Structures are given as structure tokens and as C-alpha cells.
Amino acid sequence: MTNAAPSPQEFIGFRRSSALAGLEVLDAYHTARDWRVIGQEYAITVPRSWRGEVHYRGATHVVEPGIVFCNQPEEPLVAKPEAGRAGSFNVLLLHPELLDEWLSEQQTRPVRSQFSAITKPISHGLISKFQRLFAMLDLGGSAMELQSEAASLSEFVIKELIAGASDAKLRDGPAIRGTARMRECLHEEGLDTDLETLANQAGLSRFQALRAFKRRYGLPPHAYQLCLRISRARRMLLAGAPPADVAAQCGFVDQSHFNRHFKRQVGMTPMQYARTGAASPCRSSGIYRVAAALGENATASETHSEWRRDP
Question: Do 194 and 19 touch, CB atoms closer than 8 A?
Fold first, then answer.
């Protein structure tokens, strides 16, 4: 007789970043508990494996993978899992001030902060944006990366989930002058500049800045910033700096984070690059090849092509 495998342990946690004021993620894994909630935020629940019923606004709603459940601030809900079975889900929590800010940036006319439906099938585009932001929080991305991913997600949230939202495109403002100023700022302000700073310098909203910069230069600001970090890292490595020191000074989370991005762009590890430079009397740069898809997919998707795995 074999022993049954132990059930996975319940895990409840929150993820936040100082770069994303007003936004946090609730992670609930392997949970079979009933949930009774009155939150202060707009909440978008994305089931991973959780199935059950949610009593909300006087009705019972079936919740399962493939849909999103949306609830307004300060409105109570009671969620019960199917037959007491454990499941997992993530919740995007948006403070009211942040959602109002997103709407003012992206809508040509005033729109109330009101979800269009309580439950709704989730599109491929929206689930992809959720995955990228959740993955970037896991990776400890830079402020620029996190803010760019949040701005990109905000477009899909508003378009697909907010009542009365329009598809009308906002003008990107003085795009030529603004994006040139953003590029100057990336070179002048250091490698830790965030999207909000760039947008302020350009006189644009964060959402407008992200779109305008990508349209002009072919890649979003955080991917451009990554290229600058790798360029600085190459110079430091050729000057004899240890890779661990280079990683820290160029703004990478750790050595593994640095190695992954460096190899993707340069085609070899930082140590290999340093050795080839040291072996050459004239330190020829040789052939420098930047991998394809430096744009929108140059960060989270290269390492997280699927959901963050349950712990």
C-alpha cells in the first residue's frame, strides 16, 4: 500500500513595488477556504485553477479559469470553492486614484470608474499582459520595466473591462520633440530613470510616452534602457571589472539576471566576453549581434512564457 502524496500547502501573499504606487497583487495558491472580503480597491481576480461560486451584489456568480471576476471598492463578496477543493488565483488590486489616473490618460472624455461586467471571459491579449506584469514582479524588474508593463496592461484593462470606455486614440502630443527629450533623459539621468520621469520630461502621460517612444525608435523605453545597461557593462568588462561588480553597477538584480540579459544581446556570457577582450591585444569588438525582438518582448516574456508557477 502506497501513501498518498501530501496536499500542497496553502500560500497567501502580496506583491508590491515602490515603482507601482496604487497597485498590488494578491496571490492565493492551493486555497480551499471561504473568502469574505470588503476591499478598498478595484479588484480583478484571475483564476488559475480555482473553481467555485461568488455571492456578490445579491447574485451568485460561477467563477472558473478562463474568466475574470471584477468587483468595486467597498462592496462585500463571499467566495466558496467548488466542493471544498483547493485552487489558485491571482488578484490585481487597483487603488481608486490609480484607476482614475489611467482613465484620464487614455480616454478622450470623462469615464466613470465602473466595471462593465462582474464576470467576463478573459481575452488572450489581457491574459498575456497579466502574465507579463506578474512575471516582472517576480523577476524584480527595474522601475522602468514595471511601469511600462503596468501602462501596457492598463490599456487592455480599460478597453475590455471598464464600462463606457472608448477606443478613440489619444493624440500622443509633441511626439518628435518629446521622444527626443526622453532619449536624452535616458542618456543623461542614469540607468535607473523610470517611466514617470521620462514622461514628465517629455510633457506626456506615461501611456503616451510609452507609445510615442516605441513608434519612433522601434522599442519601448525599458528595452532601450536595457541596451544602455548592456553597453555600459561591455565597457566595464573590457576594462577588467569583475562581472559581479558590473551587474551591481549596471542596475541588474543579481548575477543571474545580468548573465541572462547579457547573453541574450551579446551572444555569450559576461565572463566569456571579458576573456575574449583580454585575449586580444587590440581589443577588437568583433561582430556584435543584437538578438531579434528587442522590443516589447525583450524582458519578462523571454524568461516567463507561462504563468508564475505555484510555490
Answer: yes
